[in-house]
Amino acid sequence: MEGATLTRPRPGPGLRARAVALPWPSIALAVLILVTLYAFFAYPTYPNYDSYYSLIWGRELIHGQTPSFDVYRAPTEHPLAVILGAGLSVFGRGADRILVFLTLASLVALAAGMYRLGRDCFGVFVGLIAAGLLISRVDFPFLAARAYIDVPYLAVIVWAAVLELARPRRGTLVLVLLALAGMMRPEAWLLTGLYFLWVAWPVSWRRRAGYLALASIGPVVWVAMDFAVTGHPLFSLQHTSGLAEELGRTKGLAQVPGALAHFLINLDKLPVLLAGIAGFVLAVLIAPKRSIMPAALLGIGIATFFLVGLAGLSVIDRYLLVPSLMVMIFGAVAIGGWTMLHHGRWRTVWMVGAAGLVIFGLVFTATRVNLSSFANELQFRRDSHASLVAVLDAKAVGAGRRCGPVSTPNHKLIPDTRWILDAGPAGVLARSDPRYDPQTHSLLTGRLAHGIQLLTTDRMSLLRQSFTTGTDESLNASPLPGFDRAVTGSFYGAYVRC
What we know:
The chain is mainly alpha-helical.
């Protein structure tokens, strides 16, 4: 057209700009959900010892029975887990797999919470790295695959922190989440009490009373359940202390610092712990206000760990799970916190140092971590459970149960066996029970003279479910005189005497 001026079209955004503009957090979340669903169906796993007991106690509640909190080497009950177990028990045997699914969903929620906490404190890149560090720490996916209550507990704590960070002194919603956490693990009580003091100070007395009621839910429900079931309001505390001493998990206060370092290295791995220390220093120097929330959770968690040791309870790594998450947050700062700086020399130096940390972490992982062992562990959980179900469902076992109870080498197989058989505490007993005499092979009541003797037949099941403490007797893992072999599977066998 005459007189028209042609103009060159403006170039579109470059490949790098388009890549940066992608919604990476949403993409990462979608990938995590798909991988989790695949893992749930491809590697069927089942609840751990404590979680099976929660299902059993919930089933007892539904049936109008008193939960058997005080049986031989029973774990400490967690009220919310028992309540959930009661709700899931209507699904029958399949409740155990539903519980695993819910825990895996909690892992996804925890990863999303780690992203949000890292993002809101230090930026999107740090948030993505924090979530990645969580998922790459094999211990945490494994806890979820075994339905440990720690995973939903951590998800609730982290999201409470996210909500509080978004609106300081939010109050009610955060206290509700902390109340749920306090019904899952008692170490949440200290965090709840401190948060109550924080939100109650500037409000009216009426609102303080409401906050106090919410903050009291955890300990009140725990004590009430103890009293209703056992008649002892402090049963859980006394039972946990006694069991910790019996299993050799107690430590003197002088040993707690060493245990602290050891457990954090186990949970976070050395490169992440070192990155966490460096990231903590960097975060406090360049963004002190943004560091308050993760630093507070880190400090309160470590203080709680020391108090647990002082109280004589089990000193185990699970009491350091919250601090270990905060180490990951600060580790993510060490790796990606340079994005908080303007372009310049210090940003470049930080990027180079972060690259060195990543290389160190990759080399450390490649030379020490065997991913096949994780897959083998999941396969053992799947195959051993299938073997146990096949043995216990055999007709010979069903007939033998009319002659007496099922006995297991020690306490390890009791909850799985009780759940599969829908048996009460008198229907499944441990041959390692102190009332049991390994020389005469009978309880003082004579109950184990007849019935079913369950044995481990595979090396791995033998080591994990027959010889787990220094007091386990070899006779408890061997066929007893008078018992005839009824059925044998890949991991277990059953002997009957009528």
